[in-house]
Design goal:
The chain is mainly alpha-helical. Helices cover 70% and strands 0% of the residues.
C-alpha cells in the first residue's frame, strides 16, 4: 500500500518537465531527494514486508485505502515540486550545501534508527518462531516414544501463534519510549525537509502529517502496553518523545 507513493513521484518527475516546457534536465539535488524518498519506501513497502518480516498481522481495508490514498497525494505533491514547480536549475540550489548535507545526514540517521528499531520488533517474532520450532521438535521426539506414535495434540493447541506473541522491547530507544521507530521516521523526514529547504511546502506538510497522524497511535499504543503489561512493567517510558509524550 506504500509503493504507489514513490512510483507516483518518479512518474511525475519523469513526465512533468516536458509537459510544462522545461527542456533541460532537472538538477541533481532534485533526483537526490527523489532517491531519498524512494529508498525509504523500497524498504517500507517491499523489503520489510516481503523479505524481512517473519509474519504480518491483517490490515483493515479502510486503513489500506487511507494509506494508499495518502501515498498518491504525497507522491503527486512532492513529485510536482521536484518535477517542475520547485527548483528547476542548479542555481536554485546554490549556497545551500551546508543545510543540504546536514539534512541528508539527519535523514540517513533517522532511516538507520527506523530500521534498527523495526528489527527489534521483528526479533520478538523471530524468537517466537525459534521457540515454537523447538517445541514442535520436542513434541515430535516425545510422540515417537509414545504409544503407536500418536502425537499429543493438546500441547499443540496450547501453543500461541507467532502473530499473538507480545513483549515489551528493551534495546535501543525502547528503553525510554515505546515507539522509537515512529520518532526515527520523523527525524528522517525532518532531515528530508531540511535538505529541500524550510520553505518547501510539500516536505513541510509531509512532516506535519506524519507527526499528527502517528502521535495519537503512539499514545493509544502506550495505553495498550500499560493495560497488557501493567504500569510497573512499562515504568517511565513515554510513547514517542522521551520525557514528553
Amino acid at each position: 500500500m506504500e509503493a504507489p507513493g514513490f512510483l507516483t513521484l518518479l512518474y511525475v518527475m519523469s513526465t512533468l518537465p516536458e509537459t510544462i516546457g522545461i527542456d533541460k534536465p532537472l538538477p541533481l539535488a532534485n533526483w537526490t531527494m527523489a532517491g531519498m524518498f524512494t529508498v525509504h519506501y523500497l524498504y517500507r513497502a517491499i523489503i520489510a514486508p516481503l523479505i524481512l518480516n517473519p509474519s504480518m498481522s491483517p490490515i483493515h481495508p479502510m486503513i489500506w485505502i487511507s494509506a494508499f490514498s495518502w501515498q498518491i497525494i504525497n507522491g503527486l505533491s512532492l513529485g510536482g515540486w521536484l518535477g517542475g514547480h520547485g527548483p528547476t536549475r542548479p542555481e536554485d540550489w546554490a549556497g545551500r550545501y551546508v543545510p543540504m548535507t546536514l539534512g541528508m545526514m539527519i535523514w540517513a540517521a533517522g532511516l538507520m534508527g527506523n530500521m534498527f528499531h523495526d528489527d527489534e520488533l521483528r526479533e520478538i517474532r523471530r524468537a517466537a518462531l525459534r521457540s515454537q520450532a523447538q517445541r514442535e521438535a520436542t513434541d515430535t521426539i516425545d510422540s515417537s516414544k509414545g504409544q503407536d506414535g500418536v502425537v499429543d495434540n493438546k500441547k499443540k493447541k496450547k501453543q500461541k501463534s507467532v502473530d499473538k506473541v507480545y513483549q515489551v522491547p528493551q534495546n535501543g530507544l525502547f528503553e525510554v519510549i515505546l515507539y522509537p521507530h515512529y520518532l526515527c521516521e520523523w527525524i528522517e523526514w525532518i532531515g528530508f525537509w531540511m535538505f529541500a529547504g524550510l520553505a518547501c511546502l510539500p516536505a513541510r506538510s509531509f512532516v506535519f502529517n506524519e507527526i499528527s497522524t502517528m502521535t495519537p497511535r503512539a499514545v493509544a499504543g502506550r495505553r495498550w502496553y500499560i493495560n497488557r503489561f501493567g504500569r510497573e512493567k512499562i515504568g517511565n517510558r513515554k510513547a514517542v518523545v522521551p520525557g514528553i509524550i
